[in-house]
């Protein structure tokens, strides 16, 4: 047939029979052919079928099978469904559609359910005992959300409570905002006013419900879409205890139990995947990691002398693993500025573990991994342990500026472990919290302007520049301006911080580490650590080789910036005041002190590179510009950062057995799951049988009654 047009075989008067393999076949009745194109409306199709079979259009429904799927009947209920059917079967010669009376339609639902398919939540009838049991199970979940002011330990805890609350109250929801600082959800039914918003409080940084409209106008009835509430992880958490007692718990039984106890309709593949995750978690991959990591620690220290590899285990098979290679430690202490970013990562390839990472910045402002740790969760205790290990790994004593989020008490833990260090908030963390405090009634343009004012306050080098940005925020909202001032500007604004970020405000560690670990399979913790080691080894080598081709005294990015500023500096007037102090005429007069390397604009102190005013002075006095740049931007310092190599561990893949831990069963690498139900046997080739077109007027073949030319 032509594109957008199919030949539909309309069948009526017969019945469906369930085959041994669960597929459905139709037998009996009569059949007529009709041309259906993508422009035809459902009303026109029903009118033609009504005249063809002499039945009322209000008393029947139209169904069809998807290509290569004879298990599930698809209902055509509107014009969009009809166009979708035409598109699905565009490559088929003929398509069977079935005309079912309303009473027969209900019978078909029961036949499909008997063949292994779950029915809709709206059409499934639960007896009184099952309904009472479901009410008892969901009683506690109904009180998971109490109202405004309710506090949760984290966004994840709030999402879990909301999930159970939705199941207990029989409604579907969707997320409008969903990140680490705020969660907003609303009912999926259009026009229903139910909505909830939770975010971190500005004072205690607790995750709290700020707004809620608990009114439903949708009837709160779960439909077949309710299977979306049953995520794989949720199903695994529900069935884990029963699976431990009954290892042969079948997916079909899982689906039936969840339908009976929670009113959720699951298909076979959802139940199978939930069982797979629960089964995997029951084998406790932490135990497997403990078996291999002691040996790996020894191999790291043997092949990379001077490195630090620490493993701490507990009786319940929990562990904490810390790694810092000697090449990275030496490069940070001798070639990188004293600036460390602390990040927590959840890798996409394996979200079972948390990675605590300390990264620095080299002269080219590229990420420089220093140390990382593998833990089971991100807690204050784990962060303290990581900082203690990090401090013990350093051989030089110098004041370090740490940049991190304002969570898990990191500021307090840093002051305990690194007494003389400075702490700054990460820019993105501050902006996210700032956005949660904005009014929902503001337009996106207003919100963008407010964020721009905050960024200017962060980058402000002088106090008057900072105050100007705050006043711009105050014009829009006094409360928001007070919130910004309450967030301790000395921890995030260049105008007040005591440490030095050298103009660097974020690390990009999350994107970098996730790009290194492939998501095509689920690696073990040992494989992840060794992949990171290999990537670090390649990074050290490639950057060292690249720097060997440089000929300038400064690294390329710093040299380009200085040259661009030098062009502007030549137009400025310079007056010598006394010795090393100079006046530079710009839009306003700036004072430059070459001896202390200071300028009243404060950009020299903040960035580590001479500002345009300092460059004007150095150009006027014929002094070497490179002598007044921070040493961390020099080519020599950059080469020192990558002077050492991370050595390979040749036998990292060798099977390991230790006397400390008993061997645990291993899991094969998981390939990317294909869509649909997992198949155990190859699909049998589909046999297409072309049906001859039969005319109901002249009883001839090759045409139908619409195109019949016989005179009757």
The end-to-end distance, rounded to whole angstroms, is 29 Å
> What integer is the average pLDDT?
79
Beta fraction of the residues?
15-25%
- Numbering strands along the chain, what is their spatial order in the largest sheet? 13-14-17-16-15-18-19
CA radius of gyration: 34 Å
Structural class label: alpha+beta
Care to describe what's here?
It is a single chain. By secondary structure, this protein is of the alpha+beta class. Helix content is 38%, strand content 18%. The chain has a seven-stranded mixed sheet, with helices on both faces. Helix 6 (232-245) packs across helix 8, helix 7 (251-262) packs across helix 8 and helix 19 crosses helix 21. It is elongated and about 115 Å long. The model is unreliable at 103-130, 655-671 and 683-689 (pLDDT under 50).
Topology:
Elements: E1 5-12, E2 15-18, E3 24-27, E4 30-37, H1 42-53, E5 60-65, E6 73-76, H2 79-88, E7 94-101, H3 102-114, H4 128-138, E8 151-152, H5 155-169, E9 173-178, E10 182-187, E11 195-200, E12 207-213, H6 232-245, H7 251-262, H8 268-282, H9 285-303, E13 308-313, E14 319-324, H10 326-335, E15 339-345, E16 354-361, E17 367-375, H11 380-393, E18 401-404, H12 410-417, E19 422-425, H13 427-436, H14 444-459, H15 463-476, H16 478-486, H17 509-516, H18 525-547, H19 556-569, E20 573-578, E21 581-585, E22 589-593, E23 598-599, H20 603-607, H21 612-620, H22 635-641
Parallel strand pairs: 1-7, 15-18, 18-19
Antiparallel strand pairs: 1-4, 2-3, 5-6, 5-7, 8-12, 9-10, 10-11, 11-12, 13-14, 14-17, 15-16, 16-17, 20-21, 21-22, 22-23
Helix pairs in contact: 6-8, 7-8, 10-22, 11-12, 13-14, 14-15, 15-16, 19-21
């Amino acid at each position: 047939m032509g594109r957008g047009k199919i030949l539909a075989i309309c069948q009526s008067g017969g019945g469906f029979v369930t085959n041994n393999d669960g597929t459905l076949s139709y037998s009996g009745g009569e059949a007529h052919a009709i041309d259906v194109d993508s422009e035809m409306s459902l009303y026109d199709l029903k009118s033609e079928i009504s005249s063809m079979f002499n039945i009322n259009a209000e008393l029947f429904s139209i169904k069809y099978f998807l290509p290569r799927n004879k298990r599930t009947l698809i209902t055509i209920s509107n014009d969009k469904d009809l166009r979708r059917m035409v598109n699905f079967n565009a490559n088929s010669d003929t398509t069977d559609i079935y005309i079912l009376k309303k009473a027969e339609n209900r019978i078909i639902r029961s036949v499909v359910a008997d063949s292994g398919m779950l029915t809709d939540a709206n059409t499934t009838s639960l007896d009184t005992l099952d309904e009472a049991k479901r009410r008892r199970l969901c009683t506690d979940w109904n009180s998971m959300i109490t109202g405004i002011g309710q506090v949760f330990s984290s966004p994840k805890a709030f999402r879990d409570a909301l999930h159970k609350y939705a199941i207990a109250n029989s409604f579907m929801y969707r997320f409008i905002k969903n990140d680490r600082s705020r969660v907003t959800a609303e009912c999926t039914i259009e026009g229903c006013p139910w909505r909830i918003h939770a975010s971190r409080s500005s004072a205690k940084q607790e995750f709290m419900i700020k707004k809620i409209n608990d009114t439903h106008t949708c009837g709160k009835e779960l439909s077949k879409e309710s299977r979306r509430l049953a995520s794989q992880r949720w199903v695994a958490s529900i069935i884990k205890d029963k699976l431990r007692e009954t290892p042969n718990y079948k997916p079909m039984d899982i689906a039936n139990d969840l339908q009976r106890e929670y009113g959720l309709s699951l298909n076979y593949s959802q139940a199978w995947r939930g069982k797979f995750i629960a089964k995997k978690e029951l084998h406790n991959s932490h135990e497997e990691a403990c078996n291999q990591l002691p040996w790996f620690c020894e191999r790291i220290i043997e092949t990379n002398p001077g490195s630090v590899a620490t493993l701490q285990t507990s009786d319940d098979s929990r562990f904490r693993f810390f790694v810092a290679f000697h090449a990275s430690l030496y490069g940070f202490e001798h070639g990188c500025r004293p600036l460390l970013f602390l990040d927590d990562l959840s890798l996409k390839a394996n979200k079972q573990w948390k990675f605590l990472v300390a990264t620095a910045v080299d002269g080219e402002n590229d990420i420089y991994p220093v140390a990382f740790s593998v833990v089971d969760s991100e807690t204050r205790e784990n962060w303290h342990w990581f900082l203690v290990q990090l401090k013990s790994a350093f051989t030089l004593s110098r004041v370090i500026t740490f940049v991190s989020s304002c969570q898990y008490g990191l500021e307090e833990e840093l002051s305990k472990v690194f007494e003389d260090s400075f702490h700054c908030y990460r820019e993105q963390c501050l902006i996210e919290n700032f956005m949660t405090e904005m009014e929902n009634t503001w337009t996106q343009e207003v919100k963008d302007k407010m964020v721009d004012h905050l960024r200017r306050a962060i980058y402000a080098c002088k106090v008057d520049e900072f105050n100007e940005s705050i006043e711009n925020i105050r014009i829009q909202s006094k409360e928001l301006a007070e919130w910004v001032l309450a967030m301790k500007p000395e921890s995030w604004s260049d105008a007040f911080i005591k440490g030095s970020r050298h103009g660097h405000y974020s690390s990009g560690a999350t994107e970098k580490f996730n790009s290194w670990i492939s998501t095509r399979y689920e690696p073990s913790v040992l494989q992840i650590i060794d992949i990171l080691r290999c990537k670090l080894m390649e990074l050290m080598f490639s950057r060292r080789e690249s720097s060997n081709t440089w000929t300038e005294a400064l690294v390329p990015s710093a040299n380009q910036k200085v040259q661009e500023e030098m062009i502007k500096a030549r137009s400025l007037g310079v007056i010598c005041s006394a010795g090393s102090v100079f006046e530079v005429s710009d839009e306003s007069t700036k004072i430059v002190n070459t001896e202390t390397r200071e300028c009243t604009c404060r950009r020299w102190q903040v960035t580590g590179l001479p500002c345009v005013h300092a460059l004007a002075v150095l150009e006027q006095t014929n002094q070497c510009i490179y002598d007044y740049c921070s040493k961390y931007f020099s080519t020599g310092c950059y080469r020192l950062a990558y002077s050492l190599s991370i050595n390979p561990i040749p036998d990292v893949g060798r099977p390991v057995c230790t006397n400390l831990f008993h061997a645990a069963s291993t899991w094969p690498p998981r390939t990317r799951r294909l869509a649909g139900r997992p198949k155990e046997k190859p699909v049998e080739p589909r046999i297409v049988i072309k049906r001859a077109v039969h005319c109901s007027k002249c009883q001839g073949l090759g045409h139908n009654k619409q195109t019949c030319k016989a005179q009757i």
